[in-house]
Design a protein that fits this description.
five-stranded antiparallel β-sheet, MetI-like fold, 2 domains, alpha+beta, 14 helices
Length: about 375
């Protein structure tokens, strides 16, 4: 009797309709399951932010990727500064150069070196007509002396407002180069993934649909390409071409389609004997119509997942090629070239390597999270 009391009679039509869930389309159902996976949604947000950072960011910074100021080289984002006689501050670089900084953290100038006093182990830098700045080498790290010869302790940690993420060994703004480098890396990856998707879909689709001897011949070609390590193959193609953005896109687009072709072929082989394909053949549909309107649309789930996995792989390959010196030609900035430039200053200025490496890691994690979310959202077995 208690169980029976839990049920109520629905008298009105509006309340009866309330019992049924709102129908969703296939795309709506995929988005519903995708956005309920926190890691996939986080990856999508990171990708959108990185695209905005790469596309809109360079319009908001006053520096270009190749603007140099060697007098302000290797300045970090956070500086330990000394008080100057006129209320400004002084920063000592790793190369023992003195940079004048104002109260807001703007870099003003590099002080010119004056005379060396070997007996006192100090160097005098003229500051203005009446004052000088003395750099003391008797202590480590080197410190600034006041007019009485006493060491001045570091009094303040200040943010570098002229270069928010610091400068590299040539005095170039790291933030601007990160923006341009992310733009180039994403553009290379997206273009290469698009070309690979087109080639792989048509090659794998034709191979799987035709079957027989044609399928065997086409797959043996894929096997031959796969026997050569992809990294070595891309390097060989890149060496034969001129340096530049287009050459690296061609190199990546020429080999990465083999994985897509295998995925599409497997999907077509599993779908071509289904009832809807037989019905299309019965009404006289052509091979092109069956492939483009029936087989490939039904295989879009694994295709999209494979594309999201190809993009971080292409970005990593581009960064690796630029790191070993056969990628983007200077002065263009990419994440790989920035890592390569930062290796010489790894011990003294590790932030120059950490920042581009962090962006590469964010891109890799974001696309892998999105690919994992798409795989679960497009899998009908996981639908509840």
């Amino acid at each position: 009797m208690q169980a029976a009391n839990r049920w109520e009679r629905v008298a009105q039509t509006g309340e009866a309709d309330r019992l049924y869930s709102k129908p969703r389309s296939f795309a709506g159902d995929v988005w519903f399951r995708f956005r309920h996976k926190p890691t996939a949604l986080l990856g999508l947000v990171i990708i959108v932010l990185l695209i905005l950072f790469a596309v809109a960011g360079p319009f908001l910074t006053p520096y270009g990727y190749d603007d140099q100021n060697t007098k302000l080289a290797n300045i970090p984002a956070v500086m330990d500064v000394y008080p100057a006689p006129d209320g400004h501050f002084l920063y000592i670089t790793k190369a023992l150069k003195i940079i004048e900084v104002d109260e807001q953290g703007h870099l003003l100038r590099q002080l010119k070196k004056g005379k060396d006093d070997a007996a006192r182990k100090v160097t005098v830098f003229p500051y203005n007509d009446d004052l000088t700045v003395t750099l003391d080498y008797t202590v480590m790290p080197a410190a600034i002396q006041d007019q009485a010869g006493n060491r001045i302790e570091q009094t303040q940690r200040m943010w570098n407002t002229s270069y928010l993420l610091g400068t590299d060994h040539l005095g170039r703004d790291i933030l601007s180069r990160l923006m341009y480098g992310t733009r180039i890396s994403l553009m290379v990856a997206f273009v290469a993934a698009l070309v690979n998707m087109v080639i792989g879909i048509f090659y794998g689709g034709i191979s799987g649909y035709l079957g027989g001897r044609a399928d065997s011949i086409m797959m043996r070609i894929v096997d031959i390409i796969s026997t050569i390590p992809l990294t070595l193959y891309v390097i060989l193609i890149k060496v034969c071409l001129d340096d530049g953005l287009m050459s690296i896109i061609i190199a990546l687009s020429s080999v990465y389609w083999v994985d897509m072709a295998r995925v599409v072929r497997g999907q077509v082989l599993s779908l071509k004997n289904q009832e809807f394909v037989m019905a299309a053949r019965t009404i006289g549909s052509s091979t092109r119509t069956i492939l483009l309107r029936h087989l490939i649309p039904n295989a879009m789930g694994p295709i999209l997942v494979t594309v999201t996995m190809l993009i971080p792989s292409a970005i990593f390959m581009e960064a690796f090629m630029s790191f070993i010196g056969i990628g983007i030609a200077p002065p263009l900035a990419s994440l790989g070239t920035m890592c390569n430039d930062a290796t010489d200053a790894l011990r003294t200025n590790p932030y120059q390597l950490f920042l581009p490496a962090l962006v590469i890691c964010l891109i890799m994690f974001a696309f892998n999270f999105v690919g994992d979310g798409l795989r679960d959202a497009l899998d009908p077995k996981l639908k509840k």
